[in-house]
């Protein structure tokens, strides 16, 4: 909701200063892209602890379920 208020206020300020309609549309598009990128960055920062937790859990599970490498090599060595 705050983003919508920002866009409307931005449009009105540019309209009040006498900027052309094309300039207003270009500025609105650029401001929307910048806000979207900033929002994605903020979402990434919020999700970072959960992503790190998922990486640690997968790392621990793989370390626990790792096959015994010496047994595998002993089986393969006998065939050659």
Account of the 3D structure:
The structure is a single chain. The protein is mainly alpha-helical and 80 residues long. The protein has three helices and no strands. α1 (2-17) runs antiparallel to α2. The longest helix is centred in the middle third of the chain and has 44 residues, at 21-64. The chain is rod-shaped, with a radius of gyration of 27 Å. The relative contact order is 0.07. The mean pLDDT is 82.
Count helical runs.
3
- The overall average pLDDT, rounded, is 82
Number of distinct beta strands: 0
What is the string of SSEs from the N terminus onward? HHH
Please give the oligomerization state of what you see: single chain
Radius of gyration of CA atoms, rounded to a whole number: 27 Å
C-alpha geometry:
rod-shaped
Give the percentage of residues in beta strands: under 5%
Poorly predicted runs: none
Instruction: Please identify the structural class as seen in this structure.
Output: mainly alpha
Major β-sheet profile: none
Task: Kindly state the percentage of residues in helix.
Answer: over 70%
Span of the ends, CA to CA = 69 Å
Integer tally of domains? 1
């Amino acid at each position: 909701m705050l983003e919508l208020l920002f866009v409307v206020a931005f449009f009105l300020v540019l309209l009040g200063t006498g900027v052309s309609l094309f300039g207003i549309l270009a500025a609105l598009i650029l401001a929307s892209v910048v806000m979207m990128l900033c929002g994605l960055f903020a979402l990434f920062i919020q999700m970072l602890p959960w992503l790190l937790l998922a990486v640690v859990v997968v790392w621990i599970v793989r370390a626990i379920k790792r096959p015994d490498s010496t047994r595998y090599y002993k089986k393969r060595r006998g065939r050659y």
